[in-house]
Design a protein that fits this description.
The chain is mainly beta. The chain is 6% helix and 37% strand. The chain has a five-stranded mixed β-barrel.
């Protein structure tokens, strides 16, 4: 049985999940206006260009906001389960999990860095953020 629900992967986000398998956090960048966008999508929201390239993120950022869902409990997650909106150093925000920290210690503005975790017997690799090493 799978231990995490797999996301829907399509031609617009395939590069993102391929990057995660290589332990790279990739961000779309518009080839025309250079705007960054997360999550991946086919068209730039700034200039409507369909041209884009992948930029590798540093994987560092800060907690912009977070929640700790509790109900209904889902069998795919270990509790406490922290969902965080991370503001990456590149200036875009990404939703991820925050791991390796006591929930009482989580603070808006805390420095974090990306890590990668395998699920479903290695078939799925997802980004997980943790407190940044000092």
């Amino acid at each position: 049985m799978a231990n995490r629900l797999a996301p829907t992967i399509n031609r617009d986000n395939q590069f993102f999940y391929d990057g995660l398998r290589e332990h790279k956090l990739l961000i779309q960048q518009c080839s025309d206006c250079k705007a960054l966008r997360v999550p991946p999508r086919p068209m730039c929201g700034n200039c409507q260009s369909l041209n884009w390239e992948a930029l590798e993120s540093s994987g560092r950022g800060t907690v912009y906001s977070y929640v700790m869902p509790q109900y209904p409990p889902l069998p795919f997650f270990e509790y406490p389960y922290i969902v965080a909106l991370i503001e990456l150093d590149e200036g875009v925000r990404i939703v991820s999990n925050l791991v390796g920290v006591d929930p009482a210690e989580v603070k808006v503005g805390m420095a974090v860095e990306v890590g990668y975790e395998e699920f479903n017997d290695g078939e799925l690799v997802l980004h997980q953020f943790r407190p940044a090493a000092l």
